[in-house]
Fold:
Amino acid sequence: MSLGLEWKKIKRTGFLPGFLAGGIVAAAVPVLNMAFRSERYLGLGESPVKILLDANWQMMAMLNLLLWVLGGCILYHTEYADNAIQRMCTLPLKESRLFFGKFALLGVMCAAVLAIEAVGIGFCACYWFGMTEEAGTALLGCFGYALVLSLPTGAAALLIASLCKNMWISLGIGVICVFTATMLPTGNFGWALFPFALPFQTVTGASEAAILIIAAVAESGALTAAELVILRVRRSFT
Amino acid sequence: MSFLSLVGIEFQKIRRSKILLLLLAAVIILWLPSILNVQMNFQMQAEGIAPEYNFFIQGFMGMTWFMFPGSMVVATVLLTQTERSNHGILKMLALPVSTCKLCLAKFAVLLALAAVQVLMTVGMYCLSAAIVTRTQNYPFLLPLPFAFKEAGLLFLSALPMLAVYWLLAVWIQTPVFSIGIGLALIVPSVLMINTRFWFLYPFSYPFFVTVAEYGRLAANLTTAQVEWIPWLPVAFCITILCLVIACLRFGQAERR
Structure:
């Protein structure tokens, strides 16, 4: 019921078309890149999905990150803008239901955006590289992995947004976090675990990927737990 | 009401917004990695740039690439949302003040916030350069007139970008689209500065100016340099056009 309610709330916020447009823009990145300079990538001798992700993923992940941060801000802005949250708090529901509903919605939208991007990469792999069966499975694996790594970012964005009444503060903190993620040194495994840096990672090795997946799930859990604690503390002081 | 008093009122409105804190936090995060990775400045023989200049320019490139435009998008959100919550804009539009003036007063506040962040960057540069001078026993602090000249140039080159952001914030009522478009337009600026048509893309101006300076400072590196002739007229037209449309559109949605 929670997810359905959240779905209704976003109706006139432009959330849905915004996310779809963001997904299409990100999916256009590899297509345009291949259309303009395909000679640079053809004949590299690696699997097409890997070549395409290496060439385009940084920019696509950046767009995704900004989309997750913006999504988190908007989902809570609808509550705070006209004090709707006060009505939500008087309902015989736990306040955390709101967070879980929004998190589920953001997760569904992340999956939709990543699916659009997967179609973009898949199209490039088909058209320019002559995709095989294996590439299809690789694509599915990569984007499933990207979805899991996006969850902590979504949870962190929602956590920040749920704490700040004013949208510019939550957006400002989100933008600063994204900026921090871009400033972190690449190649250092420890820094990659920062929730806003995780979506930049692509599959490198099986063991490393497994650790990152476990870390992503653990971080999402920890951020959710933090939200529950903060809600309880805030409730007892206001 | 004079324009200056209008600007003063706009400043009062954002007094408790904590925006300066956000701008400062971004600037601190910008310079921290530079302080921690200061050794890298001594390994730039391939580019042929002196360590102190490299320290300066790398920080400013980090700023102009994402932090500065991103912060300015946040500032436009602040300026529009403070009015829209509790319908403050309706009361403002009922005043016998020209809407054009109100719009420009808000834009002046945006310019002031941009200037504050640029100054903060210079201030934090001085602080971090002083720190690494102590830790590395090497004079990292450049002459201040040079730092201020670069910062001033950066600010001036950001004016068209700020005008476009202001237009987006005023024209597009749905925050998802105005913020989303603003943030998404930053991302391709890395690609745009490498094309011949960079001067058509206002979001890449500050970054282009900084990268051009990098090319001048590094002996073995050639980057595209500023060509005033197509750039200045184009930038001027973009700024004026955006401001005129913003003035015309200001408050239109509420007046319907």
